[in-house]
Amino acid sequence: MARKLKLPDIGEGVVEGEIIKWLVNEGQSIAEDQSLVEVMTDKVNVEIPSPTAGTVLKILAKEGNVIKVGEPIVVIGEPGEKIEEAEAPSTPAATPPPSSPEPAIARPEVVLAAPAVRRVAKEVGIDITVVKGTAPGGRITEDDVRAFAKLRAVPVAEVGSERVERVPLRGIRRTIAERMIQSKRSAAHVTHVDEVDMTALIAVREKMKESGERSGIKLTYLPFVIKAVIEGLKEQPYLNASIDEERGEIVVKKYYNIGIATSTSSGLMVPVVKDCDRKSVLEIARVVQELAEKARQGRLELHEVHDGTFTLTNIGPIGGVLSTPIINYPEAAILGLNKISKRPVVRDNLVVVRDMMYLSLSFDHRLVDGAEAAEFLNKVIRRIENPELLHLEEE
Questions:
Q1: Res. 284: pLDDT tops 50
Q2: Domain 115-169 class, CATH top level
Q3: Quick check: helix, strand or coil at residue 40?
């Protein structure tokens, strides 16, 4: 008998996924465990296999659709079967776990929205029951409705015009857009900027590069900065925290999982290096290298992008003197590394040329005060400028 296959629980707190690409066609015969569809969840692409052999009778979810876990996506059966007779699999999709490394506001059974907000939703043609509310208790605001309308808008080509190109807002780009909107609305963003003298660290890295190369590791400055950041986070723990808005609590993390913003052809991804305080500089460099390669190849797994506590974004290799990075919500802060350039500076009342770099620390002012952010960055700078404080002799 024909069966409706539902989007399964993929784990890691995933509650929905976007249909990126169907790997089969209607009418096609398939084998058990054959990959059916590519689904994007939380910036990670996952191929969903068929639990049974048969024929694809009907594809229920189109590419670009966002589907909740447990919703039907395809009907599989024998050739000629009536789709109306399709039954759901005997084993229902598992319910997603109640908690997630990145807590989301629970959807209430009754939609919480003011009459004026409901009127706006009706005017723009949006079903308000599918809009996620960002206000306390999951209440839907007018901004939520308008943002949803923009993200879900269907592109319409301009007739007779070749001067514009309309690209569907899908996949990673849509996830990035949603995350950036959530961060800007939810956190009180402030950016603190200071400069660091990289001269001593450049010399240390040069000495250690050969050791890394023998192990197949490309040693950049990033692992050294991560080590300096960890020490700063230990002394300023609220920069390694998040807010549980539902319970009204500050959650201070006693572990150090550092996200590394990584540019890929599909968009920005943030793989996470776990337990950096327990790793050496070369170990961190190896993991960063492996995760960056997997990100560029689209092979990251869900656990490799979850449970970050602090994020680094390295704009320097691309260029740019200064930046104001957006916090990777719900984390408390993100540190931007900018271009290293030789500049004249004063040392012991003499003007000398040093390798200097600006650091941009964006933080959530609800959690971290300006003085605390400045103290944190001072501690990071002190260790970068004095690499011996990173205990590199133990590497």
A1: yes
A2: few secondary structures
A3: strand
Q: How many other CB atoms are there within 10 angstroms of residue 207's CB atom?
A: 9
Could you list the beta-strand ranges (E) of the chain: 3-6, 16-22, 29-30, 35-41, 44-49, 54-59, 66-68, 72-77, 189-197, 241-244, 249-252, 258-260, 262-263, 268-269, 272-273, 310-314, 333-347, 350-364
Name the nearest CA neighbour of 212 among 156, 282, 165.
Answer: 282
Annotation marks residue 365 as catalytic: yes
Catalytic residue among 189, 306, 365, 391: 365
Q: What is the pLDDT of residues 227-258, one digit of tens each?
A: 999 999 999 999 999 999 889 999 999 999 99
Which distant-in-sequence residues (6+ apart) come within 8 Å of 292 by Cβ? Answer: 260, 262, 271
Q: Distance (Å, rounded) from C-alpha 178 to C-alpha 168? A: 14
CA 293, 297, 301, 303 torsion: positive or negative? positive
Q: Give the Cα separation of 68 and 8 in Å (integer).
A: 9
Cα separation of 164 and 167, whole Å?
A: 10
* Average pLDDT of the chain, as a whole number: 86
Q: Which residue has the higher pLDDT, 394 or 29?
A: 29
Domain ranges for the chain: 3-85, 115-169, 190-394
Q: Are the C-beta atoms of 172 and 179 separated by less than 8 Å?
A: no
Burial class of 27 by CB neighbour count within 10 A (0 to 12, 13 to 18, 19+)? exposed
Question: What fold does the segment set 190-394 form as a domain?
Answer: Chloramphenicol Acetyltransferase (3.30.559)
Compute the CA torsion angle 190, 320, 166, 155 (nearest 10 deg): -10
Tell which residue, 205, 232, 239, 229, has the closest CA to residue 219: 205
CATH of domain 3-85: 2.40.50.100
- 265 pLDDT band, cuts 50/70/90, is confident
d(CA 381, CA 192): 13
CA 93 vs. chain centroid, Å, equals 25
d(CA 389, CA 387) in angstroms, rounded, equals: 5
Q: In the chain, count of helices (H) and strands (E)?
A: 7, 18
